[in-house]
Structures are given as C-alpha cells and as structure tokens.
C-alpha cells in the first residue's frame, strides 16, 4: 500500500490519473438494472429508438466507475476517501466498448475553521474516452485529516 | 404506465416523493465491492475503527438509490430521465437498516436557447432517513423534450 497522505501532504495543482478501463454492455446493464432501469441503459433494441440511438451507460454508472478508480489508483488519503459533496457534468454518452480514463487535479485545499484536525480538499476529475473526449467532469470535496492539528 | 410528461407540463414548485425503502448491509457491501471498495463500506469490523464507527453506505450508493427511485416513482418524463448534471451534498451517514425516502421539488424550468425542441428542468431532492434527517441533497438537471417546439 502506498504511504498514507494527510492534508499537510497535499497541494493545489497536484495531478494524478488512472489506468484505462473498459466499459462493457454487460456492466452497463448490470448497473442499470439495480440503479437506473431505463430502456436506453438496459436493452440495445429499445435504446436504438431512443435519445441516444443506442445503448449508453447511466451517468451514475460513469460516476461510480470514476469513484472506483479514485479508490484503487487515486490519492491514498489517511482514513480513506470521505466525500462531503460532488458536482457532476455529463458531456457525452459512454457506449459499450468505450475505454475510459480519469485525469484528476487538486483545485483547492482548505483547512477547516471549526475542526483543527481536518481540512477539505477539492478535486476536479475529467473522465475521458478512447478518443480523448471528456464524457464527465466530476468535482469532489473530500474530508482529509491533518497530520498535526493546526 | 403514467402519462408521459413534457417540458410544457412541468412547473416550478411541483413536488413528488418516493415510498420508503430499506438499505441493508448486503446492499451496502455489494455496491462497495463494485464501485467504492473502502473498508468502512465493506466490513463491519474494519469499519468499527474508522471515521464513521461502523459500516456506512457509499455516498455514491445513496445517489444511485435516489436515482432508482426517480426512475421508478419520479416524473414520467417523455423519452426518459436524461441527466445533464448533478450536485450532491452528503450530510449524514446511511447505515444498515436505515429506511430512506426521497422528497423532490422542481426548482427551475428553463427553455433551451439553442434547441427549440427541449428545455432543462432542475430538481432538488432530499433523501431523508427514518428519523426525518436529511442524509443527502441532490440537485439534478435533466433534459426534457417540449410537446410543441417553441
């Protein structure tokens, strides 16, 4: 396991990225069955007539896959990645066979005023497909412990 | 199926809510294994020593479950619920055995300037637990077709 990172170890502008990962039709449908059961996420034939003209991944699936990459390959924050909030923009559809990759950058590191033992770190992540096109922008605020209380 | 709704059918202030639904330890772990594999979402014993003092649902799981309720019990928008973006705040942890319910309200209905065939509708949804406490606020922007082009 990589060395654990504390608030004091993080700086604005730090960048990190994931390995590429494929999105299959099976994975798209499995997520949709549990969490977003709409025809354009579940069935190629029904999807062909819909808004997207074919099967596409739920935006929430893309968000969840982006989170998975954070956990497996992102910043090894002490105590884990604890989200306070997030903002999502879905710019393009993700289709079966697409290969995605997450490119992240720290936007802000803000010490807590009320709690000297922690701070909030804001990370902007672009999830791009195999053509380099951005399919999702996710901005996440995480709670990060300080190595030494302020 | 309920009658399909178009942009022209929706108004600011319209409210809707879901039935209550339970969140089990099994469901928390299943989501986490696929999308947010951190100890406090996967294992009661490991979670006991962590930030939350016990097993908690991933915030992304709460978001996905909220989306599921939108699809099953939310607005039956013509063509489906197509998200352009979303904002999330996670205010409290969701624990095994909690029962959640989603309370939603339309905040804004904005016709598209560039595309006369659609508009954007902004919905604010509070996901509350069995104590009435808000665990998540989700604000979603969806793309909704017009019945008649503007």
How is this structure best summarized?
2 copies of one chain form a homodimer. Helix content of chain A is 23%, strand content 33%. Chain A has 150 residues and is α+β, with helices and mostly antiparallel strands.
Structure description:
The structure is a homodimer. Chain A has about 150 residues and is of the alpha+beta class. Chain A has one domain (about 5-145): Hotdog Thioesterase (Thiol Ester Dehydrase, Chain A, Roll), CATH 3.10.129. Chain A contains four helices and six strands, in the order ββααααββββ. The longest helix of chain A is centred in the middle third of the chain and has 15 residues, at about 60-75. The radius of gyration of chain A is 17 Å and the shape is elongated. The first copy, chain A, starts with 14 loop residues before the first strand and ends in a 5-residue tail after the last strand. The model of chain A has no long low-confidence stretch (mean pLDDT about 95).
Considering the chains and any ligands shown, give keywords for the structure:
homodimer; 150 residues; alpha+beta; Thiol Ester Dehydrase, Chain A; six-stranded antiparallel sheet; 6 strands; 33% strand; MaoC-like_dom (chains A, B); MaoC family dehydratase (chains A, B)
